[in-house]
Write a structure and sequence with these properties.
- Chain A: Pfam families: SMC_ScpA.
- The complex is a heterotrimer, with one copy of chain A (253 residues) and two copies of chain B (189 residues).
- In chain A, 50% of the residues lie in helices and 8% in strands.
- In chain A, helix 2 packs across helix 3 and helix 2 packs across helix 5.
- Chain A starts with 10 loop residues before the first helix and ends with a strand.
- Chain A has eight helices and four strands, in the order αααααβααβαββ.
- Among the domains of chain A are: 98 residues, no CATH class; 69 residues, Arc Repressor Mutant, subunit A (Orthogonal Bundle).
- Chain B is built from ten helices and six strands; from the N terminus they run αβααββααβααββααα.
- In chain B, helix 1 crosses helix 3.
- The radius of gyration of chain B is 21 Å and the shape is elongated.
- Chain B starts with a helix and ends with a helix.
- Classes of the chains: A mainly alpha (253), B alpha+beta (189).
- Chains in contact: A-B, A-C, B-C.
- The interface between A and B is large, with 51 and 58 residues.
Amino acid sequence: MIEEDDNFELPLRAERETLTLDIDGWEGPLDLLLALARVQKVDLREISILALVEQYLAFVEGAKALKLELAADYLVMAAWLAFLKSGLLLPRDPEVEPSPEELALRLQLRLQRLDAMREAGARLMARDRIGRDVFLRGAPEGLRVVRKPAWEADLYELIAAYGAVRARTGPAVHIVSRRPVMSLETAIELVSRMVGARLDWASLESFLPEGLDPLYRRSALASSFLATLELARQGKVALEQEAPFAPLMVRRL
Amino acid sequence: MIDEDERAVEAALFAAEASMTVGEIMAAVGARDVRAALSRLREHYAGRGVELVERAGRWHFQTAPDLAHILRRTREEPRKLSRAGIETLAIIAYHEPVSRAEIEAIRGVQISKGTIDALMEAGWVRPAGRREAPGRPLIYATTPAFLTHFGLGSRRDLPGIEDLRAAGLLDPVDLAMEQLEVEKDETDD
Amino acid sequence: MIDEDERAVEAALFAAEASMTVGEIMAAVGARDVRAALSRLREHYAGRGVELVERAGRWHFQTAPDLAHILRRTREEPRKLSRAGIETLAIIAYHEPVSRAEIEAIRGVQISKGTIDALMEAGWVRPAGRREAPGRPLIYATTPAFLTHFGLGSRRDLPGIEDLRAAGLLDPVDLAMEQLEVEKDETDD
């Protein structure tokens, strides 16, 4: 990007009588066209597009003569302007849409829009800016917000906490309660017997005896599952399950 | 005579590290008639070395612009913008919300990656969603900090914006421009 | 009416990052009658929300001392007591007055310094003198605010050990041990 000095002002470029061939100074063909237009007339609504085209083409020719390397977009614009010029000069062909006059008008409008924004930018930069023209308080005390925790706890938490402390530190008496379990050996025996008694697929749960204590039933189910896996490994049963959590089906092999 | 509301608002704004909305001032000084106090304070400070100003709904004290020459002496310039940066900022401010392609269409050149980044870093420009158009391009708008920095009460205070709008120079980048691009491309072949 | 000297001095002091001597102000604003301007400014700001003050030959603006409460607001933020906090509070409530060492003996875990501080900050616990024992340790007790917060008429309303047992609050030994482990981890960091 081109760094401009800070008192960049719009008319500067236009005030020059002749244009130097400093391609680096132009931000593209539209920028160059705008500068040429401003040399021609201050009021962009009054410029002659034909004259502008001539100036641009002359500029590009000049650059070529000096063997300056022009960026491709400058040449593209030159070609388009040459096309526009011939359109403007030759007898009008009503078939061609849009008309050369309309294209010229659009170019003029485009230059006006760019010019408007360039001027707006300059006017923005010339405003009273904080830190350059106006200044904020140098050493503000600041509006401090002191955060004060509002502690929360309720009575249940309080007594539960005390209970936990006492339970934790009081003499602990550990009683290991005996839970009814089915051993793996028992389960293998059970499953082998049940499978042997049936020919078709049957769910694993159907092997468990009725009316078991719920805790013992859970243990029996877990052990029976292990048992079927073991039997399947030994090639004695086949297992099948249609979907996750569907009943596990068992059959003798 | 100065009243308590005015004193409180004056003290809060003096002490504040950033400009404040009426709501923030109210939160700081309690239930007071902040609006009335602000308007009396603004009047009181008018013409003094320090002024009370409102920017984008936020209030702050600042030194009077005509005293810049006294204060500037020892201070560094605020961030310098490239010419591309200035133009891009102007286009975003006057046309917002605007996409990168629309900025490029107005400037007639591609903008380098760093240009919008620098404006965002300065806190003057922010992404403002996407345009509901093919490609859903990101669109940009200015921030309250932009208005504050450039001393604008609101976007309506942008220099000459009404004249430009009346002249049709702020209309959405129109089809005519796109067509111009198409023509250019065709002659390119 | 404010004169130019006064405006310049006002702006210079407002924008200054530190208090300024008369010499420094003069260097900033140029050849002006700074002393006279300072004295008029001080008079002008007297009684306002902002004052111009001189300290050891240096001048600066500051907010009026009686408005300090505006500048320092307190905002309450609800916060849960940590497990260590609630246990410590419970032990103090059941055993008061009690020293820190005693609390630790009952809890079976050390308590960090912040724990009792938080309880005192909450207004639930107060120092209640010293134990007439070796080292004369500080002892703690609950406050009336503690009773109010927990809806207790007096400490006698706290359920006794037998009530706790009946409510099953003394049972979950393993669970309590697990929680203790977690809490140790928390206090570690």
